[in-house]
Amino acid sequence: MFFKKESEKKENKEKVTRKKVSNVKSLGIDLGTLNTVVAVPAGDKFEIYEIPSVVAVKKEDPSHVLAVGEEAKLMLGRTPEDIIAVRPLRRGVIESISQAKALLIHAVKKGSKNDVSSVERIVVGVPGDVSEVERKAVEEISKEIGIKNVITISEALAAAIGEGLPIADASGTMIIDLGAGSSDVAVISLGGITDIETFRYGGDNIDENLVRLVKEKYDVEIGLHEAEKCKIKVGMVKCNKELENKKIKIIGKCSKTNKPKEITVDSKMVAEAAEPLMKKLINALSDILERLSPELISGVYKRSVVVGGVSQIRGLKERIYEEVGIPVKISNDPLKVVAKGAAIVAAEPRALEPEIRLKAMK
Ligand SMILES: Nc1ncnc2c1ncn2[C@@H]1O[C@H](COP(=O)(O)OP(=O)(O)OP(=O)(O)O)[C@@H](O)[C@H]1O
Ligand SMILES: [Mg+2]
Asked: What pTM, to 2 d.p., does this model score?
């Protein structure tokens, strides 16, 4: 009995200690146009939660949020008349504060396992060209839900940290982030961004262009979801390397008869739809390279990584090399690196301070 009590005590104590440890919570959040990713530092790994950036709201009062994330995504296109499912972010920018707040609360709840009050610090990734108003909005939202310590970090810098790139190095690295609604090309050296090009164009635009091309070619209307499926399954970008022209069959609505019609989309059609994004990317890369100091060129040559969902499209590595002569690496973890990098900073915010960066140089 005695022993049992002792061991019970021990067990309780352990629980208390563990609880205390798990109470010290810092979260990294990538508030994306399509996906919101939460990373919680857990030893030298992370717990990751992925939430579709969708909320369901009342049509009459869009600030009235009824469902968030997975639950809201299921409602997309299927809601009764008085409810709509929407995305709080468009092209990487917060469109509705109340909806973004609901999404952020949901993310913090998930990351903290419903123990929001235990969260001491969050680090939120924001696009490179975020305005002061947008940055403040993220901070205000976070404070409103009771988190005093909020840091916003450029998504590109967070991605570099999440990729494990030597950001403190003086010789430079480059991150290309191709997201759903916005894209960044950023050069990083001495722990900070030395140059960045951001354009509000990304994977969503490929889907939209594909819908248009299918309509032009077949006189058939397809949904954005179908277009995204084609892009993911058979997508590629134009490049000199011979890539297999894959095909996928999908059902759309014939504009003439209003009847369902099966059509075939191939890789070449997706490449056509992706070409405007490629042009913008090549322009951004060319501008960055034009301004790049010779001290940083070898670091950029050796250490450029592409992150974000669109990094997965076939032929991208080849196309970038052909156009600008940089042999980029495609991230192994393209959707989560921003959140992971943000979580690393959340656990150790001093990593971003100039003195620490200088020390790392020595
Ligand atoms: N295998 C794939 N091939 C091509 N595109 C893909 C693939 N997988 C995902 N995508 C696209 O990547 C985009 C989502 O990427 P990501 O999650 O990085 O965006 P986000 O962070 O939500 O957006 P943003 O950074 O613009 O706010 C979508 O357009 C999606 O369709
Ligand atoms: Mg992103």
From this structure: 0.88
The CA distance from 317 to 305, in Å, is 10
Q: How many domains does the chain have?
A: 2
Let me know whether 154 and 177 are in one domain: no
For β-strands 25-31 and 119-126, DSSP reports them as parallel
Sheet harboring 45-52: ordered strands across? 45-52, 35-42, 25-31, 119-126, 149-154
Closest-approaching ligand to the CA atom of 36: 1
**Domain membership of residue 42 as a residue range:** 2-160+340-352
326 within a domain of the structure (yes/no) = yes
Average pLDDT in the chain: 88
Q: DSSP assignment, residue 312? A: G
Q: Which atom of ligand 1 is nearest to the CA of 308?
A: 18
Establish whether residue 231 lines the binding site of ligand 1, counting it when its CB lies within 6 angstroms of any ligand atom.
yes
Under a CB-based contact definition with an 8 Å cutoff, are residues 289 and 301 in contact? no
pLDDT tens digit sequence for 46-68: 999 999 999 999 888 888 889 99
17-57 tens-digit pLDDT: 333 444 548 999 999 999 999 999 888 789 999 999 999 99
Mutate to test the pocket of ligand 1, among 232, 267, 281, 319 (most ligand atoms within 8 A of CB): 232
Residue nearest atom 2 in ligand 1 by C-alpha distance: 232
Mean pLDDT, residues 179-186 taken together: 94
pLDDT at 2 over 70: no
Residue 298 among known ligand-binding residues: no
CA 49–ligand 2 middle distance (angstroms):
15
